[in-house]
Amino acid sequence: MFNLAIDSKLRGCDLVSLRVRDVTHGNQVLSRAMVVQRKTQRPVQFELTEPTRTAVAAWIAKAALRSEDFLFPSRLHDSPHVSTRQYARIVEHWVVAAGLDPSAYGTHSMRRTKATLIYKRTKNLRAVQLLLGHSKLESTVRYLGIEVDDALEISEQIEI
User: pTM of the full predicted structure?
Assistant: First the structure.
């Protein structure tokens, strides 16, 4: 779940509602997947790195999941998949286990991590905007916490 959360950059509600078929084709875990985001109803693509593909394949085999199953099924009969609240508790456990302050990190930290790294390495706001599924560049600027003047200067330098 951790690897997929980082790689996918999905909101918690979209991550927990992934089905096996969203990230696999037959018995193969895809290197790239696409899902429609619940909040925006817009499709977003994401890459699954080799460590993530390995972890997802191992999880699918261990949990004996079928294509139509939720990737992260709930243990509760009333819920088909892990809830966003349970996901938040899992992330909090990871943060505490890493010796970090749980008040400073949460599920959205998982979404923001790779997007921030991509921006820092490339300065390509448009790429980050597409990867996050934002409709407005301004949303991406606010999301990354960069200064508007810097963002506009960078975006003017990038040809699309």
Answer: 0.82
CA 72 and chain centroid, separation: 14
pLDDT at 32: 96
CA angle 135, 141, 147 (to 5 degrees): 155
| 109-118 contacts at long range (C-beta below 8 A, 24 or more positions apart) | 110/2, 110/5, 110/6, 110/12, 110/15, 111/5, 111/9, 111/10, 111/11, 111/12, 112/143, 112/144, 113/6, 114/6, 114/7, 114/9, 115/9, 115/143, 115/144, 116/144
Helices (H), the chain: 2-8, 12-16, 20-23, 50-63, 84-97, 107-122, 125-132, 137-144, 148-157
Amino acid at 99: G
Map out the domains of the chain as residue ranges: 2-67+79-97, 123-157
113-145 pLDDT, tens digit per residue, is 899 999 989 989 999 998 888 889 988 988 888
Residue labelled with tokens 């991509």: 118
Can you give the C-alpha Rg of the chain in angstroms? 17
> In DSSP terms, which residues pair with 139 in a beta bridge?
none
**Poorest-confidence range of 5-19, 23-37, 40-54, 106-120?**
106-120
